[in-house]
Fold each of these.
Amino acid sequence: MNLRKSIAIAGISALALLGTACGKDGTPSSDNNNGGASGGGAPGGSNTASAKPQLPTYTVKEGVDLSASKTWKTAKDRGHLVVGVKDDQPFLGYQDPATKERSGFDVEIARMVSAELGLDPKKIEFKTIASVNRETAIQRGDVDYYVGTYSITDKRKEQIGFAGPYYISGQSLLVQKNNTSINSKDDLKGKKVCSAKGSTPIQKIKNEFPETTPVEYDTYSLCLDNLLSGQVDAVTTDEAILKGYAAKDPDKLKVVGANFSEEKYGIGLPKDDAALRAAVNDALDAKGADGTWLAIYDATLGLSGSPAPAVPAVERY
Ligand code: GLU
């Protein structure tokens, strides 16, 4: 009798779990994919499926006057910010091809900062810009700032400025799920490894892995296509990006090995605009301290499986 009862309960729990799992695997931008929420028979179980973390709302700060910043002043006169992002990195910077809706941790950080600068985040004009074109886009004024897995490096600082960091990741490897030959960076000899042009990971492969064949594309999604078709053996870039791809296609892809670099994500902005850099750093400080950063993380990047790290300390220079 008891055994029967526990089997019945186990069955219900399994169903509830299944429901939860189904609810999770929609595209990152779909907010209402509660595949399991209809399983009302499970006692207390239906709540789990709908307990997806919600994005915070951003209150546009009033009375902001940053006229010392040329970039801010131009944006204020224009009525909105122009922000560079990625569009093919699930949970970070993603654009739904059907709805055109943008989502992800980087996109939300961009919106949060806009509100802190006194400019309506709903009015942001987003521009998709590939890794290799970031410095030029900022230098030419094509964007006011850039938020897209953009590592702070001394070399880039010669051309542009960085606020942040607002997140820290590290270089890792993505391979096909059934791959048994690549388990870490030490297995890359003789392998074809794909990354994005102009990125820190492709540079590391070229500099430190001379026996590896680097393959470069403008975007990581092109590397991903090549990995799935077997044209390359691995994709390398930041773990945060790779985990997003693996979470979208867990039957075919896996992230392997320990991280082998430190990538501090900054918000890229014009080099000479110290006032904007200070204001964006202030925004990151304030929204890190009041829990907004964590709420954003949980509702975006956290969904790809990485537990929330501590909010990194802003490095002013
Ligand atoms: N974070 C690295 C970089 O800034 C890799 C990711 C990217 O290309 O955006 O180069």
Amino acid sequence: MKRVLITGVAGFLGSHLADRFIREGYHVIGMDNLLTGNMDNIAHLFPLKEFEFYFHDVSKFVHVPDNLDYILHFASPASPIDYLKMPIQTLKVGALGTHNLLGLAKAKNARILVASTSEVYGDPLEHPQTEGYWGNVNPVGPRGVYDEAKRFMEAITMAYHTYHGVDTRIVRIFNTYGPRMRVEDGRALPAFFSQAIRGEGLTVFGDGSQTRSFCYVDDLVEGIYRLLLSDYHHPVNIGNPNEVSILDFAREVLDLVKNPKAHIAYKPLPVDDPKIRRPDITKAREILGWEPSVPRAEGMVKTYEYFKQVVK
Ligand code: UDP
């Protein structure tokens, strides 16, 4: 049985990855310090002998007994509001945490996949974003703590690959949605669903003309799984190129939830908020034979089912 370590296992993506790897017959060692993770996301895994959990902050030295085949580094705060509240932890888990896990990968002779992000492109001046684009990031702005930690993550991962010969993979993840997103994490989708369900104003920042491209979590997990098992060590964008303005996205939530009290409530645009974002997924198509298959209308219905249960 192959053994995989997943950091950030109690988070949105980490928990879905754990489910997938258990289904594929792996032994999953999950690690989380529960800074933004939620034990409810992995409670169903605890009875399984194929799953074990370590409560640990990976920005400190990481010890795992016995052998490891794969490491997936998914621990990090992941919403702009979280970066504002936890800037130092965000920097540490992306930088020191990645260093520790690369060291672990080297010691265990394990393959490591690190979760990078479309935020490495910052407020992009090229559209859509190909992996060849170097980005437009403000290092000292509020999002810089995340963006620069992830850029460092990519740099140190490539350095471990070229200098130490560690077997590495880098995924650049674009906006992803689905069940288990944290209700109060402040990102657009959890905010809009919870506000619509409660009959409140949907807080559209700015005039809502800024765009994002949302990928359903099952599609993302499939792309990551394929990348891990590929032999490609340069960064690969995984995301859904179907781009939508934030205002239209809020309207889609209103149409789905149909709460007569819910409405659009405009709020100021946060500093350095990227104006446009859409992945070019040519590489993922060519190298992994991957492209998203879940249309937003379908993914949003599944996601609404989840938020109906958890929003109080
Ligand atoms: N946004 C919004 N209202 C909210 C939360 C976010 O209008 O309550 C906007 C935000 O300004 C950004 C987009 O939605 O333009 C996506 O924001 P999110 O925090 O989900 O992720 P980002 O892609 O910015 O990291």
